[in-house]
Amino acid sequence: MTQSATKPFIDVLSGQREAIPPVWMMRQAGRYLPEYREARARAGGFLDLCFNPELAAEVTLQPIQRFGFDAAIIFSDILVIPYALGRSVRFEIGEGPRLEPLDDPAKVATLAGRADFGKLAPVFEALRIVRGALEPKIALIGFCGAPWTVATYMVAGQGTPDQGPARMMAYRHPEAFAKIIDVLVESSIAYLLAQLAAGANALQIFDTWAGVLPPAEFARWSVEPTRRIVEGVRAKVPDAKIIGFPRGAGAQLPGYVEATGVNAVSIDWTAEPAFIRERVQTRVAVQGNLDPLVLISGGDALDRAVDDVLANFGEGRLIFNLGHGIQPETPIAHVEQMLKRVRG
Predict the structure, then answer these.
(1) 211 burial via Cβ count (<10 Å: 0-12, 13-18, 19+)
(2) Distance CA 29, CA 271 (A)
(3) N or C: at which end does the chain have fewer Cβ atoms within 10 angstroms?
(4) H helices of the chain, where?
């Protein structure tokens, strides 16, 4: 697969610095947009929206049409892999995801070894629709959840404040927990390759809960599975562009970058700028790291925060983004303010 040299987002991942950094936002297709809320109401439930190719493509394109971001990210969810593995996955309004808990080795033994990607055909069809609708200069991002983060939801059956159930299982039953991770690694490789084949130009691996792990466990359950995914994807698509997002990794980011081989790393808003510039951005592109709450705040605080990101990272390879997903209560005018400030 060859990547277009006309996409600023891909150019940064390929080793170039852009004078005006490409911009997109995590969760940019979401509840802060009235057109998204209308489309979701038409779809019914959240997974109904994810698995309706026309509507998923529509909401993926909405922020591009409104704001002109440099990249679109396909509208889906990290928990479609457990769904393809035959697990029950549902989303409760106001409560988040609910799954069948895999909270002991006997239950882990019931986990399918192979995902049914026929169940995810609507995601691939949505990617094809979006790719056909995007201008050539705009990149399309596919994604998956990192095995550690997906496993935390599979073990507990839901999100918890510190993902303690998965951490406890990894300590008490490491062999059983490793089986979950291994299945997720292989399924994620196949899923990401299918997204590239359907039109994605780049991939992001979201490890939202990486920051709760001590260093040795971080290396075992976050870094190593991500390394295997990157290696597995590149065995079939050698020039695949991949962004890692081990949220909260902090001082462990240089080791993550070195071990995984990602082209870029997304950083949250707590990252120490000088450390990132000296130890991370000298090796790979950096993506981030505006605080989503300052985007809600707006005004002078937002201008200062945007300027800080550009001052801290703009001399190197930067993809301007948030340090995590945009919040539903974010005013649209503040997104416009941010873009105007970034693009000068």
Answers:
(1) middle
(2) 25
(3) C
(4) 8-13, 34-43, 46-50, 53-67, 80-84, 105-108, 121-133, 147-156, 164-172, 174-197, 215-217, 224-236, 253-260, 273-279, 292-297, 299-313, 332-343
pTM of the predicted protein model: 0.97
Q: Are 252 and 214 in contact (CB under 8 A)?
A: no
Residue with tokens 């409560």: 95
DSSP codes, 101-162: ---SHHHHTTS-SS--GGGGHHHHHHHHHHHHHS-TTSEEEEEEE-HHHHHHHHHHSS--SS
6-to-21, 127, 223, 330 alpha-carbon distances in Å: 14, 20, 32, 31
Structure tokens at 39: 């489309």
Report, as ranges of residue numbers, the positions in the chain whose pLDDT lies below 50: 1-4
pLDDT for 93: 81
Q: Which of 105, 119, 245, 262 is nearest to 172 (CA)?
A: 105
Question: What token pair was written down for 3?
Answer: 């990547």
Strand pairing report for 89-92 and 96-99: antiparallel
